[in-house]
Predict the 3D structure of the following.
Amino acid sequence: MSDVKRIGLYPGTFDPITYGHIDIIKRACALVDKLVIGVAINRSKGPLFLLEERVAMIEEIVRPISQESGCEIEVHPFENLLIQCAKDVNATILIRGLRAVADFEYEYQMVGMNRALDDSVETVFLMADAKHQAIASKLVKEIARFGGDVSKFVAPSVKEKLLAKISV
């Protein structure tokens, strides 16, 4: 058996992490030996949760996934080009989640640009289970702000933090 690890990078803002993200993480763990969850410091998106809060939520959620799957999972904040982040963590695979055909056009452009920057990094698209495909963090936050039940979309610990954050 080779000592070379297959390292994947799954980037996003995860504001907050949803069941859709969790499903992609579980699927990615079947493909790689180590999964780095790249938490984007994207100030232009104006995240609800601070970076430290997002990292802590993700670490809490992925701990049992890592133990169950045997896949090493690391949470890594980044504020540079995605392809540079991949180099920084030695990832050779970018994991991207697709929800719908609308996501594909943007992702297709990203693949082309990333390949132009570094053609040694492959992109793999994964689709979450059908019951999680429509979940978007932006919509989860909106539902919570208007008093809707987000239990179907986020883990209980995330729901608690989300409700505390929006009631401030």
